[in-house]
Amino acid sequence: MQDAADAPTGQWALRITPGRGARYQQIVNYIEQAIGDGRLRPGDRVPPQRDLAKALGVDLTTVTRAYAEAKRRNLVDAKGALGTFIAAPRAELAAVVDMSMNVPPPPAQVDFDDMLRRGLSQVLLRSDPHLLMTYHLGGGSPADRVAGARWLGQMMGPVEPSRVVVCPGAQAALAALIQSLTRPGDGIAAEPLAYPGLRSAALQLDRKVVPIECDAAGMRPDALADACAAGVRLIYLNPTMQNPTTHTMPMSRRKEITRVAAKHKARIIEDDPYWLLSTDAPPPIASIAPELTCYVATLSKTLSPGLRTAYVLLPEDGVTGEGFLAALRSFALMSMPLAVALSTQWIHDGSAQTLLEGIRTEARARKDIANRWLSGIGQLPPTGIHVWHTLPDHWSAEQLTKAALAEALRVTPSDVFYNGPTPPNAIRISLGGVQDKAELSLALRKLATLLERRPAYHQVVV
After folding, report:
1. Is the model's pTM score more than 0.85?
2. Does the pLDDT of residue 3 top 60, yes or no?
3. 326 occurs within a structural domain
4. Where is the signal peptide (predicted)?
């Protein structure tokens, strides 16, 4: 443990930068990042508040607020006259660090609690509370569709609001599209590694997933053409920072896929939750072939799962609309009015964009942490929220997943995503669900240590 003389403010490579968020939040972010990369360790003393305020040229109240927030996040412990120290990791009984669920991380340099309070107050100020608590016809109000068109415009360019349908999450949208575009027994073309919700919806609706061979660019057009010639008329793609592989399909392959679909009169479902987290993704397939493509974009992966709001951009021909809405209403009568109203408010007042930028920044920082601790993960997109990690030969995905759980770490094995007999030897590691970067860094370091070991084999004697 450091004493007071060992914790001068000069050792902190921290500068308050205008335009980088609230000053107190910059101090908290620095503490969290320094813990994550090992510059600050449990037991290290942080500078006295007055000394840090003087060194940074800020008010004492700014540092006081920063230390209070750091204490709330369990980053520091205040010990009265002894000073304030970096806290030891929380040791909760049966606590599991969950890296199995793909959710966006807490946004950097954003006071989410304050944003939520202000957003809800504006919704209640501008809306009739009774209307927020009653039944609504599915598909979204005109104002909600306009907000959806504005959000989708970031990927697609100008969007006609009449083509936008507001849905209670991407899974409901996906199931309704499958139900309206196929019949029982039909096949759905997909890459062998695909979002598990596709298989779940297909199974429930008595459809089957038809895995299409891939190469380095993604789904092979010749293999897709063979499937379409055999009767497949619906194609599922997750072409940008794909779940689980993080692969992004290049523009040339996107065009080849659309040519195959057009030739065989097949529809495309483009499930694109991560496009806004990418820095260099090609335009969506829906912008190349708007007459063929149903485009799905959820706020759950870019803003917050609690919003339970997804936007579907229907094809230009209008044929899909009524059947899709009827299918959606058959099992999800409506989206949550309050959540949709909050989404609409945030999109129109700019809060959604602020939140998105904070999540992008945090995702970049978390990917850096993953790169620090995990070897062999190769080239990764800079702002994704998950990692596809190929395992060393001495571990199988099943063994590693069980061993990680015994170490209070939860990851996802490849068989959850695979449509076929022999899944690749890999796991998906989600980076957003862990509340703070320091805890994530400790978890990834523990996982890296586990990967270096060999599994324990126990021989049972009968």
Report:
1. no
2. no
3. yes
4. none
